[in-house]
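[09:14] KT: can someone run the structure on this one? pasting the chain below
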Amino acid sequence: MSLISLQDITKTFKVEPLFTDISFTIAERDRVGIIGPNGAGKSTLMKILTCAMTPDEGEVILKKGTRLVYVSQHPTFPAGDTIFQIVAKALADSRKMVVDDLTPADQAQVYKVLAKTGFENDWEAVETLSGGWRKRLSIAQALVQEPDLLLLDEPTNHLDLESILWLENLLKQAHFAVGVISHDRYFLDNVATRVLEINKVYPGGMFISDGSYAEFLGKKAEFLAGQRHQQEALANKVRREVEWLSRGPKARTTKQQARIQSAGKLQEDLADVRNRTQKNEIEFSFNASQRKTKKLMELEKVSKSFDGRDIIKKLDLILSPGMKLGLLGLNATGKSTLLKIMNEMYPIDEGTLKRADNLKVVYFEQHRDTLDPNITLKKSLSPDGDSVVIGDRQLHVVSWAKKFLFRADQLDTLVGKLSGGEQARVQIARLLTQPADILLMDEPTNDIDIETLEVLEDSLAEFPGALVFVTHDRYMLDRVSNILLALDGQGGVTYYADFQQWQNAQKAAPRPSSVAKPSMEKSSSDKDVKSKTIKKLSYLEQREFEQMEARIQAAEQLQERCQADLATLSDKSDANIIKDKYDSFMRAQKELEELYDRWAELENKLK
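[09:31] RB: done, C-alpha cells below
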C-alpha cells in the first residue's frame, strides 16, 4: 500500500530544472536509496517528500495517518539536555504533549529505543557525544516516534564501520518504509530494495529501478546504452532531413510543410538528448614526487596516550612507495591521532619516527579546518593570482576550477557558502597542487558523490607514493587498500589483508563493551601465566584471576540474553515488563563492565 506518492513533480532551481514531471511512490516496507551527483537535487527531493518545500508543479499525496519522520544530515540538540531527555522530548512532541505528562509506558518506550540504539548511560549529557553517537541519537529520536516512513539524509557520514553495520541491520529488519540519501555503495547494496537516481542525463531528471544497488547499476547501463543508440538513430535521421531541406523547392515532395515541421522536431529531440548526455566529469590525479626511496617513513615502538589511556602502543610500521594502508577502528580509537603523528602534528610519548630526507607529506583533514570560509572560491583555489602550477604545467584558475565541476560564475562565491561536497572538492584541488611522497587522508569521502568517489579511488590507486587513509566507505577500502591496520582503542593494533578478514574477526570476537577491554588472548603458556600470578598476585587474587575469563564469558552470555529479551518485546507489551527487562539488561551491562575493569586491574599487576 502506498504511503506517499509524487505525481508529475517539477522543480526548478534558479533557471535550471532539477527534475521535470517525475512520478514515484514509496509503499509500506519499501527501502528506497536516493543517489545523484552533488547539486542534482537529492536534498530538494527530500524536502518535497517531507513537505518542507513545495514543487513548482505536481502533487504530493501522503496517505492519511502516515507518520513521516525525517533525520537530517547534521542533527542539532539543545545544550545541557541528557540523552534520555532528548528522546523523551521527541516522543512528547510527536504526541503533542509535554515531557512531564509522559506515562510510565511512554518512559519505558524511551528506554527500549535507547537500548535498541546502543545507549548505555541514558543520563549522559549530549555535549559529551562524538559525531557518530550524535547521529545515533538522532536516529533514536526518530525511532521513538514509531514512524511509518523514515527519511534519512546521509546517515552514514561520521559513523564508524561498526555503527554502519548496526544501521544496516536495523533498517533491513525495520517494519517501516525507508527513504535514504547515501553515497555509501555497500550500504545501498545491503539496504535498498529500490534505487532512485536524480541526474539530468535521464529524461525528466530521474531514473528508478527495483532491486539492490548492484541490480540498479546493470539496469542503468542498459538504459544509457539504449539512449546512446537513440542518439545515433536521431542523428542519422536529422542528417537525412537536413540533406532534404538543403535541396531546392522543386526537388521536394508536395507535402513539404509537414516534413519541414517534422525535421524541426527531430532536431529539437536530438538537441535534448545531447544536452542530457553531455556530462561534465571531474578529473584529477595526485601530484607525486616520484621519489624511489624504499623507506619513506618508519615508526618503531611508537606509543601515544591521552589522559592516561593508551591510544597506540609500541607500533612498528614502515611506509614504502606503493603502500596503500587503510586504518580501521571504532570512533575515538586513534585513527586520526595516528595520521597526525605521521604528519608531526602530535608528539609521540615513546619510540622513534624516522622520515626520509626532504620528505613531502600531504594531509587531508576531515573537518576542513584549513579552508577559510570567508575567502572566495577563486582565492582558495589559486591564492597567488589567476594561475595554478601543477607539476611543470600552469593552468588558469577558470580551467582548474572546471576540472572540479565549478563554473566560472562561482569563483566569487565565499567558500563558506559552498555545499559540503563542493568544499571537499576544493580541499582535494588544493592538495593536488602539492607534490607528495606520502598522502595522509582522514575521511576524504564525507559529502562526496559517487561519481567523484570513483575518480578519487582511481587517483589514489594510481598514486605511486605511500597512502595512509581513514574511511568508513567499505567499497573504497576494498578497491584502494592493499593492507589494513585495525586499532582497538587500547593501544593494540592488528594487520588484516582486507575488509572481509577484519569483519570475520569482529564476528568471532566477544561483543564489544563501552569500556576499554583488556585482551583475553594468552600470549604465553598457562604455566608461564601461573608463574607470574604466584609472584605478583596474592592467593585470593590469583584464584580470582584464574576464574575471570569464565566469569566474563558468563556475563557476556547473560547480557546477550537480556538484549534478546528486549528485542522480542512489542510496542504493546506491558510497561512494567519493558522496564524490568531494561533494568535487567542495564544490570548485566554494569556487571560486565565491572568485570572488565577488575580484569584490567589484575593484568596491570602482572606487568
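[09:33] KT: thanks! The chain has 18 helices and 20 strands.
[09:34] RB: yep, looked fine to me
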